[in-house]
Amino acid sequence: MIELKTEEQFALMREAGLIVRGALETLRGEVKDGVTTGGLDAIAEEYIRSHDAVPSFKGYGDPPFPAVICASVNHEVVHGIPGQTVVRDGDILSIDCGAIYQGWHGDAAITVGCGEIGPELAELLRVTEQSMWHGIAAIQDGKKLGEIGSAIQSYVRSQGPYGIVEGYGGHGIGTEMHMDPFVHNQRMLRDPGSRLRMRTGMALAIEPMLALGSKFTLVTDDQWTVVSRDGSPAAHFEQTVCLTEQGLWVTTAEDGGKAGLAPFGVAVHP
Fold first, then answer.
1. Does residue 189 surpass a pLDDT of 90?
2. How large is the C-alpha radius of gyration of the chain?
3. Given this structure, which CATH class describes domain 7-264?
4. Which of 133, 140, 216, 269 is least enclosed, having the fewest CB within 10 Å?
């Protein structure tokens, strides 16, 4: 079942999204040589709870995820568990964060360079983030869901031989963090779900993950952390996007998505 929302419900998702964005921007400013991922997690929890929201991730899944953010360093793609890991200059750190406000979810991710990072890593971050905006711009009432993955893949392939991580992707979001439909980050012509028509009232989390090397991954012994199989660095960006009658509303972006979507000429929620 696809959950369709009203404008009033989208407004609550916007509140959740702004809390997530505030937490992520706070953490961005704290990423510096010597910080621990556990320290960042504590900052995120304090921020979310002080804004009358509840962390989405803590206690989620089986085994229960033990933290508020996912903190994935270098070759860790997603779902890294915060702890004693120390972030050093030259590292890249993917931070995924979710919050629940009055029963509605926001979910977003950024990848941040610690200090000065190499040009190859900087380009990886740029391409990953821009591929996300290409995917978001493909969201339109009546279009097939697979257009999102096609847009992401087409852009990535135009930029270089990056590995588009397989087996992980975007998802519906609303009264739960993960809902139907699953959103692929590449063209999947034989997947029946990709033929689903998008409709006004849908909310989707769009989240491409790219690696400098292989698209294949492994899950570590903690049963959560996903790493690139060949050990290559990976990046992850995510936004929550609502398809409203007035246009796309990127509820986890401070400006609602206006800057990110400006090059595409798509209607954006005022």
1. no
2. 17
3. alpha beta
4. 216
